Amino acid sequence: MQFEFDAETGVIKDKVTGERCIIITQTRVEEVCSRLSEIFQSGAKLNIFEAGKAAGKHFAEETSDVTKVDKILFLKTVTQRFTDAGLGKIEIIEFDPEKAAVKFRIWNNFFAELGCDNSMYRSCIEGFVTGIYEQIMSITPKIQKTKCVTNGDPYCEWHMTLK
To answer: What is the residue range of 99's domain?
Structure first.
């Protein structure tokens, strides 16, 4: 995402969509996640997954029609927007459109650094990438987390395949 700030009005906008944005600190996001866990308890993870999935679909829909035809360009565009938003650096390790398989890593994963329940952030990321995957492949993936910074790994890694 690329942003523009209008100092006169105090408004930040996404240059791609024209939508208004805000900057929110990691501490505030942690507070939101903690509060959701308090209110919804075990249901919070499902709510976060579904919200992430909807955000991923919307995020993917914002890419140009040209990138939607070329799946590799689509992946590059979406991962760059994720990185530009300050959420971490996504690295596509493997992409096999024939098998609908994607292996990716997130370095400096914003969500993994949150001081709240690890499964909560995983639900957010897994929902988000599921939404994007469904936009690319038109199917719901099987997703498996294979590495995590919370386990001492240098990055978070997932494999997405057909169910």
So the answer is: 26-162
